[in-house]
Amino acid sequence: MERTLFTPAMIETFKVCRKAYWVAFEGLVTGRKAKSKDAHVKSFLLRAIAEINRGRVANMHQLLKFMGQHWPSEEMSNEKAARAFLFAHKTLSQYMLNTYKPAGAQVVGINLKVRARIGSLRVYLEDTFDLILYYPSQRRIELVDFHLKPLKPFDPAWPSASMLVKQYLAEKLRCRWPFDKVSMTFVQLGSAERQTVNIPMEESVFRLHWPDLLKTLSEMKDPEHYDCAKGKSCQRCNYLESKFAQIRTQAIRPISKTA
Q1: What angle do CA 243, 44, 238 make, to 5 degrees?
Q2: Strands 123-135 and 106-118: what pairing?
């Protein structure tokens, strides 16, 4: 059966290694919630950042209460749990004291999931915008994406598949907010000074690279294209297979009690 719903993470993985895409999204983990420890921490941080942006977590007492209620303790049951908790606490404390909201911006969307159909391929694209800011005086909308890892150098003339998807989905927002310009901001979260990179999303650049993305999506619908392009397997394939095998083993490990 053909898949008809794709996310930026799926597209980026497919472009790097098609077998890795099969391992991560189609084959080995279908129907399973196989998430790594880092993924659990990132999901928690994004959820907490959303609550801070909504104003529901505004002081240290509320932050500690939120962490006590929602921290993924079951996935952190080892010697690295304290370090991960401390990192999350410092990161959220730092962001709470200096939330991302430039002058003139209105917060119009937080953790907003958007889906749009591509009629020519009969597929859907879906992504979640961490934060959406609207500048009425500039008639501009800003899509904010939070990251934990250091931001890499980026050439606006060669947007990633993720950025092309976000720009396509942004058109769905035009009916809510009358904007003429779209920009993308990457924010690196951490306990130290925050790093941000803002990139204007030009319509001419989008039109130039969009046909290549359509070609990739067409190939993703066909399971015959899921073989590794580098032969039987590559480093990414082997890593994902071993990682998911380890996660599944931990998930089915029997619980034992000692007297």
Answers
A1: 10
A2: antiparallel
pLDDT tens readout for residues 47-59: 999 999 999 999 9
What string of DSSP letters covers the chain? ----EE-HHHHHHHHH-HHHHIIIIISTTTT-----HHHHHHHHHHHHHHHHHHTS--SHHHHHHHHHHH--GGGG-STTHHHHHHHHHHHHHHHHHS----TT-EEEEEEEEEEEEETTTTEEEEEEEEEEEEETTTTEEEEEEEESSPPPP--TTS--HHHHHHHHHHGGGTTTS--SEEEEEEEE--SS--EEEEEE--HHHHHHHHHHHHHHHHHHT-GGGGS-TTSS--HHHHHHHHHHHHHHHHHHPPP----
Q: In the numeric block, which tokens belong to residue 136?
A: 């009425």
* Residues above pLDDT 90, as percent of the chain: 58
* 0.90 exceeded by pTM: no
Determine the average pLDDT of the residues in 30-54.
81
